[in-house]
Amino acid sequence: MPKITFHDLRHLHATTLMASGENPKVVADRLGHSRVQVTLVIYSHVSTELQRLTANKFEEDFFKDNVR
Q1: pTM for this entry
Q2: C-alpha span between 39 and 52 (Å, rounded)
Q3: What is the residue-level pLDDT of the chain in tens, covering all 68 positions?
Q4: Which pLDDT does position 53 carry in this prediction?
Q5: Could you give the CA distance from residue 62 to residue 56 in angstroms, rounded to a whole number?
Q6: Please, are residues 28 and 10 in contact by the beta-carbon 8 Å criterion?
Q7: Which residue, 19, 27, 31, 38, shows the most beta carbons closer than 10 Å to its own?
Q8: In the Cβ-directed half-sphere of 50, how many Cα atoms lie within 13 Å?
Q9: 39 phi, psi to nearest 5 deg
Q10: Under a CB-based contact definition with an 8 Å cutoff, are residues 11 and 39 in contact?
Q11: Integer CA distances (angstroms), 51 to 13, 17, 33, 48, in order
Q12: Cα separation of 66 and 47, whole Å?
């Protein structure tokens, strides 16, 4: 089993919250970041992935409902 550090758990916690759509301000507060921007920069990979998933879901829903 790999060694898991406190920092790894902290990152997992923040990434999971961001991926579940939690408000970035809430995540920043939980992590102790003084500015939300810090949280958004560090975890931007999560929001990029969420944007992609949202775009794919919209496309699927749009074309599913508009195909004759």
Answers
A1: 0.67
A2: 20
A3: 889 999 999 999 999 998 888 999 999 999 999 999 999 999 888 778 888 888 899 999 888 866 55
A4: 85
A5: 10
A6: no
A7: 27
A8: 14
A9: -60, -45
A10: no
A11: 20, 15, 23, 5
A12: 28
